[in-house]
Write a structure and sequence with these properties.
This protein is an alpha/beta fold. Helices cover 28% and strands 29% of the residues. Strands 5-10-12-13-14-11 form a 6-stranded mixed beta sheet. The chain has a 5-stranded mixed beta sheet with strand order 1-4-3-2-15, with helices on both faces. A 4-stranded antiparallel beta sheet has the order 7-8-6-9.
């Protein structure tokens, strides 16, 4: 199976357009000599131990949930472990792909899987994802009559034939003609210049950035109103079982005990403080929060379960393996890394 076909299957699982703007997702390492994909290794983090494992399995593609290359790189040297991994992957003909926050955001993704560990409930998204696509602007202005709009439209189209332009006109005898022009971000400077050249006063020109429509069910974090409320103690045991962990960290909210009822739970895989902040819930579940963020939650009467960062995400790899299996031919083996683990453990 060709690499592009596998990438298409991964895109079907979670479109990369759902990733956060700051993230670095997609194909990160592409060997110069492409080879058929027969073995894929899924991992939460690409470490040297995981790459050793990939080489031992003769993998053609590593899907690493966290992007091993995140910050811009000016050189590839052996003294930096992430750069060293990239060089090894290239030399070994191993492609590397990272989905990261696209898996968090997609409906049925990491966060839906995480919140399901406490049972079924009415689930909503905490930070709504918006439809992808280029940014667009709407320019609103007033002209004396409709005839004055014709030369403006002609010049705009002449300057850029690929520019998508629309305008609507509403007549008002007192105010003249109200018009609006829609354009892309790259076309905005020339569109503004054209309008000013045709007598539109700068103080009468309004520029609005249009917002993309929301994508229901997609976005960061989840809030669940549980169909069957549980105690804090039961929530802890359920999350241990769901994540396959022996230990979790728990901070009881002000006035809470282990027997307090949890009816509303908010989750965010990884480092979730920014998404969970201010959310009204009996319990937060995330990988990590700072000391003061935990204190703030506790003071508001919200208990907090911390799993350590990657422990809140890793179990989803089994879900991905099953979903990929139905999209890839039997000739492709999808394995989950045995060397991948959270760097922190309770000792």
């Amino acid at each position: 199976m060709e690499l592009k076909e596998v990438l298409d299957a991964l895109e079907q699982l979670a479109p990369l357009s759902l990733a956060e703007p700051w993230d670095n997702v997609g194909l990160l390492v592409e060997p110069s000599r492409p080879r058929p994909i027969s073995t894929i290794l899924l991992t939460n983090d690409l470490t040297e131990a995981v790459l050793d494992e990939a080489e031992g399995l003769t993998c053609d593609l590593v899907v690493s949930y966290h992007p091993p290359l995140f910050q811009p790189i000016k050189r590839l040297l052996q003294r930096d472990w992430k750069q060293r991994l990239a060089v090894r992957a290239l030399e070994g003909g191993i492609a590397v792909f990272s989905p990261h926050t696209s898996w968090d955001s997609v409906r049925g993704g990491v966060n839906d899987w995480l919140v399901a560990g406490l049972g079924s409930g009415q689930v909503c998204v905490l930070s709504q994802a918006l439809a992808g696509g280029p940014c667009r602007f709407k320019l609103e202005f007033t002209m004396r009559n409709a005839e004055d709009l014709q030369p403006i439209t002609e010049q705009l189209k002449k300057e850029d034939s690929k520019m998508t332009l629309t305008h609507s006109v509403n007549s008002c005898e007192a105010a003249g003609v109200l018009a609006s022009v829609s354009c892309s971000e790259t076309a905005l400077p020339s569109a503004v210049q054209t309008l000013l050249q045709h007598g539109v006063a700068s103080q009468a020109l309004t520029i609005l950035k249009t917002q993309q429509p929301p994508l229901p069910g997609h976005g960061q974090g989840r809030l669940s109103a549980l169909e069957e409320p549980v105690t804090v103690a039961t929530a802890v045991e359920k999350m241990k079982s769901h994540l396959g962990l022996k230990h979790l960290r728990l901070a009881l909210g002000c006035g809470h005990t282990l027997e307090s009822t949890v009816s509303r739970v908010a989750v965010c895989a990884g480092s979730g403080a920014s998404v969970l902040k201010g959310v009204s819930a009996d319990l937060y579940v995330t990988g990590e929060m700072s000391h003061h963020e935990v204190l703030d939650a506790v003071a508001r009467g919200t208990s907090v379960i911390l799993t350590d960062h990657s422990n809140s995400e890793r179990g989803f790899l089994a879900v991905v393996r099953e979903r990929l299996a139905v999209r890839l031919p039997d000739s492709v083996t999808v394995a989950i890394s045995k060397a991948d683990r959270d760097p922190l453990e309770v000792v």
